[in-house]
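[SOLVED] Predicted holo structure with zinc ion

Edit: marking solved, answer below. Original request kept for reference. I posted the sequence and ligand SMILES and asked for the 3D complex as structure tokens.
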Amino acid sequence: MRIEGWRQDKISESTVMIVGVGAIGCEVAKNLALMGLGKLIIVDNDVVEVSNLSRQMLFTDEDVGRPKTVAASEKLVKMNPLIKIEQYYKDVRELDENLFRSVDVVCSCLDNWPVRRWVNSICVELDKPLVDVAMEGLYANLQVVLPRKTACLECHGENLIPKEVQLAECTLRRRKPEDLKKDLEEQRIYLRMELIEKLFSVGIKTIFDLKYSQAQVLERLDEETRVKLREVQELLKPKMPALQSVAATIGGLASTEVVKIIHGEEFGKIFKGLIVYDGYSSRFTKVRLERKKECFVCGDYVKTEGVEINVSLDDKVIDLKKKIAENFGIPDPEILYKKWKLEDEQTLREIGVRDGDIAYIETSRRFTPLPLKLIIAKSE
Ligand SMILES: [Zn+2]
């Protein structure tokens, strides 16, 4: 409280959600608890593993096998008995949106792009400040997203999100069960054809679908298939090199930004952009990011007019899906038009699409469907 401008009352009244309680998530949670935050909501769908213990400082041997959120809550309450903690041992995409509405800041400490992008989209949609942090080896980065004021994760996605993540599985829906079998065998995972056909029947057609399928999809599988699918998901989990000191560095910076956001602009200047840390050469690089008015997540007209896409009446729905995949890096679009879900083989002419019509894209990458304005070439 001796720090000039520090408002403990504001911190004590605030709620922060931390998504992902891995190395960085542990650091941020510990920092915020020690700084006297009022309430912390922590979300993670993993349990503690032995390999986590060298860099996830809230866990010890006794926690192995326990949900990370449960183990973390116990430690945090010991550090600060006054803090309120709500923990969710769940996929963040299954949480009620009102929970997001109740927080002041979201801090995303995830290890994979698909869910980071989903968190980015809900934060922009609900106008919640987001601090997104990630690391790999001796590198780490931090981006602050103040919805519709600063760039979101998608504004420069074509440059900042790895190409293989963006387009890895844009081969889309014409896949056959054999394709998935082959992709899995490349990862040394061998499944019976019968099982793969069952996965196909609920729309799990790519490794991406396998890794990130949501609970509603899993519920449609029988128990045996579901158990097998969980085993496969375990094998496909990203194994990223990570170092405790780097987690502490970037987690420390992230916590300070969270505290500044809680203060409003009254306590230091909130960092608006991207910080990249390179531990090999002890270098911090600040990257200024302009918000893109035409961004398909935070753009000015996304909600009112939709994002535009050029089409031809002779395009089939599958062609439109490919365009969407290429333009927006969405690998699994489903298109809703006047309440129908469109079939791949129909042409836009057969469906009766007119210039300027709005369709909606549903994807696991976004919290809400993306409105899409269909612009038909003039000659038609
Ligand atoms: Zn954006």
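OP edit: Residues 63 and 71 are 6 Å apart (CA to CA). Thanks to everyone who chimed in.
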